[in-house]
Specification:
- This protein has eight helices and 24 strands.
- The model has no long low-confidence stretch (mean pLDDT 96).
- It has one domain: Jelly Rolls (Sandwich).
- It has a six-stranded antiparallel beta sheet. Strands 2-3-10-5-8-12 form a six-stranded antiparallel beta sheet. It has a five-stranded antiparallel beta sheet with strand order 7-6-9-4-11.
- It is globular, with a radius of gyration of 23 Å.
- It starts with 8 loop residues before the first helix and ends with a strand.
- The protein has 350 residues and is α+β, with helices and mostly antiparallel strands.
- Bound molecules: 1-hydroxynaphthalene-2-carboxylic acid.
- 1-hydroxynaphthalene-2-carboxylic acid (1HN) binds next to strand 3, strand 9 and strand 10.
Length: 350
C-alpha cells in the first residue's frame, strides 16, 4: 500500500494478518506492487565465467570423480543472483560437462530439454535414441525432452561442452519425470549422421519407413559448426548488418521452422571488427559463449571483456551493447521459445 494509514488501522490490520496466517491466508495489498512489476527487474545478475578458470576446476573434479560415478560430471554455472537454484537465468540452467577419454556418461531420459554446445575436444559423441552425433568444437547438439541419451569419449583427449537445459522451467511446472536405462549405452540404432543427412539440409525424407525413426516434431539434433559458420560468413558478406544484433542467425527446428526446442531458442551472431551494436534489451535473459574474437559487452555502465570460450549471461531487460575489437562470433541460448508461446516476449531497441 502506498498511502500512510490512519491511527489504529495499522495495528488492527497486523492483528488480522497474524490471526489468518495459520490458515494460510495473506493479504494481496501488502505485496501487489512486488508481484506485478511495471517492467522486469530480474534477480539474475550480469556475469561472466572465465573458461580457463572453470576448466581448471572441472579437470580437478575429473581427477576425483568419474563420469559414471557422477552420472553427469558437470560444474553448474550458477547465476550469482540465483544462489542455490542451479539456474543461470530464472528459467534456464547452464553447466560445463567433462567427459574424459574412455568414459561413458550412462544412458537416461527425462522431461527436460537439453542442448550441448561443444567448447573443447573432438570426436566424442552424444547418442540420441541410439544414434551418435560425433561432435566437433562449436557444434550444437540437442537432446530433446523424453529422448534417451548417453555420451561417450573414445578419443585420447578430454571433451568439454556447455549444457543448456530448461531445468528451472520444468521445476516451475512440477512436470519432471526421469528414468535410467539398465545398460550404460543405448544399443546403436543407425549409423552416425543418418538424421543429419535426412533432415539437416532443408529437406526431409519423402516416404516413411526407417526415415520415420525420429519423432516427427523434433527430427534434427545436430547442427555442426561446419554448417553454421559458413552460413554466418555468407550472411556477413551479403546482408546489411542489423545495428542491434550484428549478423544473427537463429537455429531452427526443420519440422516447423520454429525454435530448436519447445522451451529453448538458440542463435549465433557475427559482429565485424570495429563494430559496436546499438543498445537492445529483451525479456529473454540470454547465456552466451564467445566462439571467436575479442571485444566487450556493455550493460548498464558495466563492461565485460570478451575472449574466446568465455561464457556470459545477460538477464532479462538489461540493455546490451557489444563492441567487437576483432571479428566476434557468439553463440547464445535463451527461453525466447517459451516466452513467445506464452505471448510474453518483448524487445526494445534504441
Ligand atoms: C543431464 O541429463 C545432462 O544428459 C547434463 O548430459 C546436465 C543437468 C541436470 C539434469 C540433467 C546430460 C544435466 C542433466
Amino acid at each position: 500500500m502506498t498511502k500512510p494509514l490512519p491511527n489504529n488501522q495499522h495495528a488492527q490490520l497486523e492483528a488480522l494478518y497474524a490471526e489468518m496466517a495459520p490458515q494460510s491466508l495473506t493479504p494481496l495489498w501488502e505485496v501487489l506492487s512486488a508481484l506485478v512489476l511495471t517492467q522486469p527487474d530480474s534477480p539474475a545478475r550480469v556475469h561472466r565465467w572465465s573458461y580457463d578458470q572453470a576448466r581448471n576446476y572441472l579437470m580437478r573434479a575429473g581427477d576425483l570423480i568419474s563420469a559414471e560415478q557422477a552420472e553427469r560430471r558437470v560444474l553448474i554455472l550458477e547465476n550469482p543472483g540465483l544462489t542455490g537454484l542451479s539456474a543461470v537465468t530464472p528459467s534456464l540452467y547452464a553447466g560445463l560437462q567433462l567427459i574424459l577419454p574412455g568414459e561413458v556418461a550412462p544412458c537416461h531420459r527425462h522431461s527436460q530439454c537439453a542442448l550441448r554446445f561443444v567448447i573443447e575436444g573432438e570426436g566424442a559423441y552424444t547418442a540420441v535414441d541410439g544414434e551418435k552425433a560425433v561432435m566437433r568444437p562449436f557444434d550444437l547438439v540437442l537432446t530433446p525432452g523424453g529422448q534417451w541419451h548417453d555420451h561417450g569419449n573414445f578419443t585420447e583427449k578430454p571433451m568439454i561442452w556447455l549444457d543448456g537445459l530448461d531445468i528451472p522451467t520444468v521445476r516451475h511446472f512440477d512436470a519432471s519425470f526421469a528414468e535410467k536405462l539398465p545398460e550404460a549405452m543405448y544399443p546403436e540404432t543407425v549409423k552416425p549422421g543418418d538424421t543429419l543427412a535426412r533432415y539437416g539440409h532443408n529437406m526431409r525424407p519423402m516416404r516413411g519407413g526407417v526415415a520415420d525413426r525420429r519423432p516427427s516434431h523434433q527430427p534434427l539434433f545436430h547442427y555442426p559448426y561446419s554448417d553454421w559458420r559458413p552460413a554466418l560468413t555468407a550472411m556477413a558478406a551479403s546482408a546489411e548488418i542489423d545495428p542491434h544484433l550484428g549478423h544473427a542467425l537463429e537455429f531452427l527446428n526443420p519440422a516447423d521452422g520454429g525454435p530448436i526446442m519447445p522451451t529453448i531458442s538458440a542463435h549465433v551472431r557475427l559482429i565485424p571488427q570495429g563494430y559496436a551494436t546499438l543498445p537492445r534489451r529483451s525479456t529473454d535473459g540470454t547465456t552466451f559463449v564467445v566462439v571467436e574474437g575479442e571485444g566487450e559487452a556493455r550493460v548498464d555502465g558495466e563492461s565485460l571483456a570478451l575472449k574466446p570460450r568465455d561464457i556470459f549471461v545477460i538477464p532479462s531487460w538489461k540493455a546490451l551493447e557489444i563492441f567487437a575489437q576483432s571479428e566476434l562470433v557468439l553463440f547464445g541460448f535463451s527461453d525466447k521459445a517459451s516466452q513467445q508461446k506464452l505471448n510474453l516476449y518483448k524487445e526494445q531497441l534504441s
